[in-house]
Specification:
Number of strands: 5
Shape: globular
Distance between the termini: 28 Å
Strand content: 35-45%
Largest sheet: 5 strands, antiparallel
Length: 67
């Protein structure tokens, strides 16, 4: 089982890339709750998904939040 330790403002890598011009897999976690809101680091679009869906599509934490 993969490690699901992520927090608000962490930079995460997803399994699939965002279909914008930059084709990046990196996103920043903007909101955590029953739903998770992430921001594409390529184009800035916000994506809202359920936490279960996020956990399935989540790959790893790239950069922890900065204090």
């Amino acid at each position: 089982m993969k490690d699901l330790n992520y927090q608000l403002n962490d930079i995460v890598e997803m399994k699939k890339e965002h279909p914008c011009n930059n084709r990046t897999k990196l996103f920043q976690i903007v909101m955590l709750g029953a739903d998770v809101k992430i921001k594409c680091l390529g184009c800035g679009n916000l994506i809202l998904m359920s936490r279960d869906s996020f956990n399935q599509k989540f790959k790893k934490v790239v950069q922890l939040k900065q204090n």
